[in-house]
Amino acid sequence: MERVEIFEVGPRDGLQNEARQIATEDKIALVDELSAAGFARIECASFVSPKWVPQMADSAEVMAGIVRAPGVSYAALTPNLKGLERAIAAKADEVAVFGSASEGFSKANINASIDEGLARFEPVCEAARAKGIRVRGYVSCVVECPYDGAVSPDAVRRVAASLRDMGCYEVSLGDTLGRGAPEAVDAMLEAVLQELPAERLAGHFHDTEGRALDNISVALARGIRVFDAAVGGLGGCPYAPGAAGNVATEAVHDMVTALGYETGLDRTVLAQAAMRAKGMRSAR
Ligand code: HMG
Ligand code: MG
């Protein structure tokens, strides 16, 4: 059976946007439950400025408190060298830099232009490589930007190629706003696939308008087999006003399983984790 990997981002992308301060021990319990569900990669920390994203300020404590399951890569966001140092100290297995295909979001999210952001990521990639830590690259706003409107496929292609050139092992394409139409996603993928093969790409769809599963279908047809998702549909981005959570992991699992792919995930444990995640969200 052909495999689709779901990259679980709930503990990071899901929780970073919660207004209520979630207890560190609750975050740890969520990650531990996700480890038992069978994910190969779980993004559970973000070493960004705590002034910008207070919810992620306890990332080092989360990384220290989780029980690491063998074979699972515990990932963290690192916007700059300071973030990378913190991630290394916390023993992150892999890190991610995150750029944008639109200027407006880049400025709002990392206080830098697209090119300034890319220039900052280069030394992060170099230093991570020296430590044997692999780096994933995100491109945000691959179809639409909350500040600049429609984003051209060529802009996405250019940023994805830069991330590849600096050594990112995989580039995750983010519909940050969650409003991308499948036709626009398809056109964007066509452009990016001229630079990177499908095996080095992932789809990262937020689900504001209920189109994420359709967009995953489009990406599957283009050969992409890795999708980021958040258990229970947690999340949103603090710098993308109006954006809803990531597509729910359990929904992606059910869809791709029905299409004949295997995910390697335990559906029962996944359901428990989804309940736990939803409880964290509603308990505001
Ligand atoms: P800045 O204010 O321009 O940075 O922020 P700075 O270098 O001038 O530093 C300002 C202060 O922050 C200094 O402290 C630094 O030490 C500190 P002060 O001297 O004022 O006390 N600082 C840090 N502290 C801890 N860890 C660090 C760090 N860096 C600086 N790593 C910066 C620039 C990039 C830091 C800031 O804009 C930032 O943290 N942005 C992150 C925003 C964010 O986390 N957004 C959500 C994640 S992205 C996302 O969700 C999209 C994604 O899911 C894909 C998709 O959906 O599209 C990935
Ligand atoms: Mg996201």
From TrEMBL:
<comment type="pathway">
    <text>Metabolic intermediate metabolism; (S)-3-hydroxy-3-methylglutaryl-CoA degradation; acetoacetate from (S)-3-hydroxy-3-methylglutaryl-CoA: step 1/1.</text>
</comment>
<comment type="similarity">
    <text>Belongs to the HMG-CoA lyase family.</text>
</comment>
<dbReference type="GO" id="GO:0004419">
    <property type="term" value="F:hydroxymethylglutaryl-CoA lyase activity"/>
</dbReference>
<dbReference type="InterPro" id="IPR043594">
    <property type="entry name" value="HMGL"/>
</dbReference>
<keyword id="KW-0456">Lyase</keyword>
<dbReference type="GO" id="GO:0006552">
    <property type="term" value="P:L-leucine catabolic process"/>
</dbReference>
<feature type="domain" description="Pyruvate carboxyltransferase">
    <location>
        <begin position="4"/>
        <end position="271"/>
    </location>
</feature>
<dbReference type="InterPro" id="IPR013785">
    <property type="entry name" value="Aldolase_TIM"/>
</dbReference>
<keyword id="KW-0479">Metal-binding</keyword>
<dbReference type="GO" id="GO:0046872">
    <property type="term" value="F:metal ion binding"/>
</dbReference>
<dbReference type="Pfam" id="PF00682">
    <property type="entry name" value="HMGL-like"/>
</dbReference>
<dbReference type="GO" id="GO:0046951">
    <property type="term" value="P:ketone body biosynthetic process"/>
</dbReference>
<protein>
    <recommendedName>
        <fullName>hydroxymethylglutaryl-CoA lyase</fullName>
        <ecNumber>4.1.3.4</ecNumber>
    </recommendedName>
</protein>
<dbReference type="InterPro" id="IPR000891">
    <property type="entry name" value="PYR_CT"/>
</dbReference>
